[in-house]
Amino acid sequence: MNRNHDRLHRDEQDLRSVGMTELQTIYSDMGLTSDELDLLSVPRHSFTVSFPVKMTTGRTQIFTGFRVQYNDARGPAKGGIRFHPEMSAEHASELALLMALKCAVVNIPFGGAKGGVVVNPMDISRRDLELVTRGYIRAIADYIGPFKDIPAPDVYTDEQIMAWILDEYERIRREHVPAVVTGKPPELGGVLVRRYSTALGGVHVLEQALRERNMDFGGLRVAIQGFGNVGENAARILHERGCLVIALSDVNGGILDPKGLDIPAVMEHQKSTGSVVKFPGARELSNAELLMTDCDVLVPAALSNQLDANNARAVKAQFILELANAPTTAAADEILFERDVLLIPDILANAGGVVASYFEWSQNLSNDRWSEEKTLSRLQEIMISAYNDVGGRCRETRCRMRKAAYELALKRILHAEKLRGNL
Ligand code: NAD
Predict the structure, then answer these.
(1) Does residue 13 fall inside a structural domain?
(2) Number of folded domains that form the chain
(3) Based on the domain organization, do 330 and 402 belong to the same domain?
(4) Residue 4's pLDDT is what?
(5) Statement to judge: residues 335 and 207 lie in one domain
(6) Which residues of 72-100 are buried (b: 16+ CB within 10 A; e: fewer)?
(7) Domain around 305
(8) Mean pLDDT of the chain
(9) Residues 152, 196 within the same domain
(10) pLDDT in the model for residue 28
(11) Of 190, 223, 239, which residue is a domain's last?
(12) Of 134, 161, 190, which closes a domain?
């Protein structure tokens, strides 16, 4: 498991308040009716389960788990499962709402869910983790399913845990149901592209933003904060497409080469030393300096609240691609908008992961295997169309892209509710 996950969890805790504050403002700006507000203010289903697990130590331990299906007007609920000691029903509920909005922005037929178990995976053995996973699935099996609610990986859960979920669910149902969970290993019906789909989806929306301005990737100078799953893949793909990735960082610090870093060599260096720092030939810089690097595109791909009222005026980039969740505070968002910096918000920029999950689910349902070509071209199509939808709303209402994305998502959800006769 990644040692940064505790930080990432705190990151998600911040995301909750940032996302919720933003939403409250948008609700009032949109002039929603009280019926609409009531409908959006509570999750459709919220379960808390307590389940006993006979651990390998011989002792029986009672665990608490949650699953929240916030809204399923547009399709089955979709969202990750998180194993963390601070997991709570309230946190799951807020993240489930954000999932519903993300799925609506990219217009895939899913609602939003989130769940988890109160457990620190570092404190127990891998075998016990499997027992906890299976116990949790036995407790929620009646509430999930390919047409009800489809879990996926999240903080501290991975492909192997998704494989255990699949196996336990299929034992209960006594039949194969691969579409009950996404993020599975490819051998069990997962899709390979999911491993880099968040970064690739972001690259597609950035490319569309450039295209609108008659620009392209050739020679574009990029700085990326974070070199984990998302940041590393973004660096690799942008480098392959002709960008100059001039600055990179991880939790230990950053590196800069104004002529462009050799990304495959940085990846090798990171693999052998555990960090990007001390990459031969590059200058060192701090994470704070990275955000203010003289570049064309800034890609926050690590933590939340990195751009705030104190540093937003010093950002030199013309474009910000939010691959991390909530890297920009509301105050910084305003400042960047006034300064004409194009900020592509997290809810759109990092939605490629859930789009790949949608492909996995579709293929599992039809017992099909798409070619890599088809998978990649559909991802591109969906991301570009989402960018155009959000961009169109921005032009109509002359607002920030984040606001336009939230409003578009809310409109789509409320429209589905209306068609169902719930409004
Ligand atoms: P990860 O754990 O693989 O990588 C995180 C990276 O951030 C690491 O390189 C780490 O060294 C770096 N980091 C940690 N603290 C830092 C600091 N103070 N300054 C600079 N870098 C720091 O995580 P990930 O999966 O790449 O996720 C990154 C972000 O993207 C998170 O905000 C996550 O919520 C968001 N996100 C991820 C996905 C996905 O598919 N993995 C999908 C949507 C959103």
Answers:
(1) no
(2) 2
(3) yes
(4) 47
(5) yes
(6) bbbbbbbbbbbbbeebebebbbbbbbbbb
(7) 191-423
(8) 94
(9) no
(10) 84
(11) 190
(12) 190
Ligand 1 centroid to Cα of residue 176, in Å, is 34
Same domain, 175 and 207: no
Please work out whether the CB of residue 13 comes within 6 Å of at least one atom of ligand 1: no
Distance in Å, CA 103 to ligand 1 centroid: 21
Enumerate the active-site residues. 114
Say if CB 148 and CB 77 are below 8 A apart: yes
* Ligand 1 and 364: CB distance under 6 A: no
Tens digits of residue pLDDT in 93-118 = 988 999 999 999 999 999 999 999 99
The pLDDT value recorded for residue 325 is: 86
Element (H, E) at 229: helix 229-240
The answer to whether residues 132 and 124 touch, using CB atoms and an 8 Å cutoff, is: yes
CATH number for the domain that contains residue 64: 3.40.50.10860
| One domain, residues 170 and 209 | no
Mark whether 210 and 163 lie in a shared domain.
no
> Is the pLDDT at 10 greater than 90, yes or no?
no
Torsion of CA 295, 297, 300, 306, to 10 degrees: 60
Residues 133 and 225 in one domain: no
205/274 Cα distance (integer angstroms):
30
Ligand 1 pocket member 276 (CB < 6 A): no
Q: 237 Cβ partners below 8 Å, 6+ apart?
A: 196, 199, 200, 203
* Same domain for 165 and 268: no
> What angle separates helix 197-212 from helix 229-240, to the nearest 10 degrees?
50
In a domain, 203, yes or no: yes
- Order of strands, edge to edge, in the sheet holding 342-344? 283-285, 253-256, 244-250, 221-225, 297-300, 319-321, 342-344
> Beta 253-256 vs 244-250: how paired, if at all?
antiparallel
Q: What is the C-alpha end-to-end distance of the chain, expressed in Å?
A: 44
Tell me the pLDDT band of 2, cut-offs 50, 70 and 90.
very low
Distances (CA, A) of 253 to 211, 277, 286, 380: 32, 6, 5, 32
pLDDT in tens, 255-295: 999 999 999 999 999 999 999 999 999 999 999 999 999 99
